[in-house]
Structure formats: structure tokens, C-alpha cells
Amino acid sequence: MTDTPRRNFLRNAGLLGAGAAVATLPNVLGAPAAEALGNHRPDPEDPRFTLVVMPDTQYLFDEDRGDAAPLDASLRYVLDEADDNVVFLAHLGDLTQNGRADEFARISRSFQALDRRRFPYSTLAGNHDIDGSKDDQRGPSPYLDAFGPQRQRNSPTFRGASKDGYNSYHVFRGGGREWLLLALDWRPSAGGLAWAKQVLAQHPTLPAILTIHELVWADDAGHAEFSTFGELVWKELVDGSDQIFLTLNGHYWPTGRVTRQNAAGHDVHVHIANYQDRYYGGSAMVRRYQFDLARGVIDVRTFSPWLAAQDHLSEMQQVEVERSGANDYFSVEIDFAERFKGFAPVPVPPARPAKQLLVPGTVAYWRFEGGQDGKPVPGDVVVRDQTGRGNDLTRVTAPGSGPDALKYASEFSPRQPSRASLRFDGGRDPSRGAYLRTVDAAPMNKLKFERGYTVEAFFRLPANFKDGHHGWCGLFARQGSGAAAGKTGDDPKESAATLSLSDSGELQWAVFPLNQDRISTNWGHELPVEKWWHVAVVNDGRRTVVYVDGCPVVRNPATPAVGLANPGGSWLVGASSYDGKVDRSFAGLLGDVRVVDRPLNPREFMLG
Length: 608
What we know:
With 608 residues, this protein is an alpha+beta fold. Helices cover 14% and strands 29% of the residues. The strands form 6 sheets. Strands 17, 20, 21, 23, 28, 29, 30 and 34 form an 8-stranded antiparallel sheet that branches. An 8-stranded antiparallel sheet has the order 18-19-22-31-24-25-26-27, with no helix packed on it. Strands 1, 2, 3, 13, 14, 15 and 16 form a 7-stranded mixed sheet that branches. The two termini are 52 Å apart.
């Protein structure tokens, strides 16, 4: 039995040909077929990119024993797997078994495939590559002759090496930003560690990955522990260098990982990978560290491109083609912006002037600037409509609630035009809170929006939103009921229009349109708390669509819903209503709110 989809996937990426078999074991390096590989170039701006990690390959290069074919297949995967968007390869040391010149000549020839394409990679010396009894001041060696700084002179990412040549660093680009990778010797000396700290100091805003041959070892359960030398490296380099968020080492087996907090109180993800004890010297297995900056995760997968490309696999080879245990196939969740903000804060764009948001058809646009963070919104406040049309808002406080039920906040969505919000402290059982309502003379109180409409808002739910005390609170609603607008279907006591949130944080737009007696309802999906969201409700006179962060939700009614039934009365910001009375006040942060009397497309939304 073979893994046909995986084989075809990798074969199409330019790995071994359809006729390749395990028994043949061809050394294809330098053959015309290798030169005929595709011209894939990684996209350094794509938020999803891959760092490939290659641990100990020493048994493939052991005097006249071994075989270069597995390594060649892995290097071809790196060069030509377009779907994975590989931007860099890092070898973790022990390239060879005995550190002999002839062994290095063979593996050096394999790596020429990367050199020819100027594909960026790093190497470091493992204890089998040099005299393991000495540190990085050991002097000349076949490793340095083959993989020293002179080899990297044409690399697009190489930035420098220590004077001894055994420690180097690269700066590669992925996800639209630069990353620093340190490649340290088997035994960096005190001077070597000082050099590494100097490199970090010279690049103070770059997140850093440390690659080194020895740092941690793991027990059979995969729990990693620092070796004696690893503890020294942690103490002298990693602990005080907040830029280092990920470390990778080989040398020991089995594989494992641990998360350790540095002196700044931030997580450092510490991983060990080595497969030389597995079939065929590890079959040149690689670790694919796929960064997804949009999702805030690194997905890790371990597999052998060489085995995956074979036509016929034995039972043993089928087991070895991919490692799926918890320490070889896993995900690491990282809020990259939060983790890196201490040394590389994401710049917040300046506020956009209100007049830039007054697109044709804008009925009302409210921003909540001017107040001091944490101070109550005054009872006599007037929140001016930025259009100048007089659709101003005033504060209303629910009976039994105090001034703190509505406060100014300096927090804001980095995507919203203004740089402020309001903190609503609404709830039920008992009912409490405060909200804003349009003044009695507001022109929008009389509108029916017959040519369509768009309602937009930025909001953030608090950690306790789903505790049962906040469900069905409103972001934006009509105070008048469906019954007051002449509607008799469903529950006519419901608000003529309301944008609210369920107990689970699902958005709901429920409205009595002009052209039907029943309520038309859109449903969103459950939203995580403590995160800023943008919602847009768009009606084009034929259908209503709810967008979350510019993306349409699935449950949008097919029934045409024209305009909004008009029962008279004010609009509410931060509350819902029932039977003409304010029902439930919002709980959370509310940023800019805009109402337009025509449908907008997502490119016109307030999203920055």
C-alpha cells in the first residue's frame, strides 16, 4: 500500500520521477533532470511561509558508506514546493559522521543545488563535524573549508560570521517582515556567545530563532530538558534576549519540546529534532515549520520527501515516510504581535480624519474621542454626528445604574478610523447599564432607507461576556417596535431593527423590512471575546448581507428585504429594545459607528 496523494503531490513539485524506486537509489545530483526543475520563487510577503529544518544527516555521509539521494530529494523539495512557500532552510549540525574532507566533499556537492539557485540556508558544526573536544576557537577544519563564511558570499540572507567562522547569522524575509536566525557552533565559547548577543543588539527589532547542535534532550515522553551545556547557553544568551522566541537543536534523540519563560516573562519554544536513529539514517527527514501570521500559529510537520516520492514502499518505509507523533506533528500558537511588542511593536497608523469617512450617502458617523480614559461619559454629553446633519447622540442611564456604566476608553481597534472608544457596562439580572440615543429632532429618525443601507461598527467583547448576563444586548437598534410600524408577523413587539449579540457572541441582524410583515434575520457565527471586530450590515434593496471583518457570513436570508419599517422614535447605540422600551445595554467596547443610506461594498468599509 502506498500513499498516492502524497507521492503525486511531491512528484509534481519536482521530486523523484515516476519510475524511481527504493532499490535504485539514484544519485541525481548535477544530472540534467536536476537542472530542469521548476523556477518557483518564494513569496516573502505572504503571511503564510515555511522554514524548513534539517537535523543530523551524518549517517548519509559516513566515509564511503551512506547515500546522498535522500538529502538531494529533501533539497529539491525545498527548492520547488511552491504550495509550502519555503523561504529558508536551517541545518542543525552533524552534516557528516566523521568530519572528513571526503565526506564534506560529498555533502557539499549536494548543497550546490541550493547555491546554484541562490536559495538561502544556514549550517552549523555538530560534534561529528569537527573536533568535539574543542570550542569555536578550534581553528581550521574540513567543515570550515566546505561550509565556512566564504560559501555564503552570494547568499541573499547571509549577514556575517564570528571571526573564527563557526558562528553565523542570517536575516530572511517571510510574512512581510524580517527574521533573524543565529547558527551557533557545537560549543560556542564565551566570545561566541558575546558575539551572538552583539548581533541581537545590532538588530533590536527582529524576532530571532536560535539554531544550535546541542541545547536540550528529551525523555521517551517527549519532555525536553536542558543539558548542562544547554543551561549555560540559556543563562548566558537566551534568557536575557527577549528576541529569541524559538530554539532548534539536534544531537540527541528522541524528539521533544518544552516551553520556558525568559527573564521578560515571555515564552520561548524549545524544540529538539533528530532522526538519525530511524530507518536509512533518518531518510533526510525535514521539519516543516509553517508560519501563519494571520492565524497566529506555527504548524509543524515532519516527513521524508525522498520516501514520499517513491513508487513502492515496503511496510517499514510506509511507517517512516512521515512522523505523526505529538512531538513531530503539532502546532504552536503564538500571538506574534503580542509576543514581539516589547522589541518590535506593530506601528499603529494615525487616525484618519472624519471627513475621509463621509462617503456619499453617509447619514450619520459617530466617533467617541475627546474624553479621558476611564472617566464617565457626562450625563449631559452630546456626541456630535460628524456629517453635520444633526444626528447627534445623548447619554441615557438605566434606572439603578451610576455614571460608571458608560466610560471613555483609550483602547481602539487599530483598523478603525478614530483612536478612542466607549466602555459600556451593561447587563441583566438585574438590568443595568447606559446607552446613547439619537436626539428627538435627528433627521435619520424619519428615514426608511428605501434604496438600501449600510450599518457599520467596531466592537470588542469582554472576557465575561458569555457568562449568561449579557446575551441579546444591542450594538445598534431602533427604539420603536414592529407593531408601531404596522407589522403583525412574528413578535411585533420586537424592535423594528436591531443588531445584537447572542449569549454565545453570535451577531444577529433582525429587522422588519418595508415589504414584508415578518422579521428578516441574519445570523453570524460565535465570536471569540477580548478581540476587536468590525461588523457591517449591507442591504441593496434585494438582500441583506452581514460582514464580519469584511467577510460575509453564511446565514443571510434569501428573501428580499427592502428598506426599514419606520415606527418613529430614536435610534439606540449600545442597547436593544422591546415593545418600545430599552431592553438590554451593551457590555464591552464600542468604537466608530457609521450609517449610510446605500449599500457599500467591502472596499468602502471603515476597515483600515
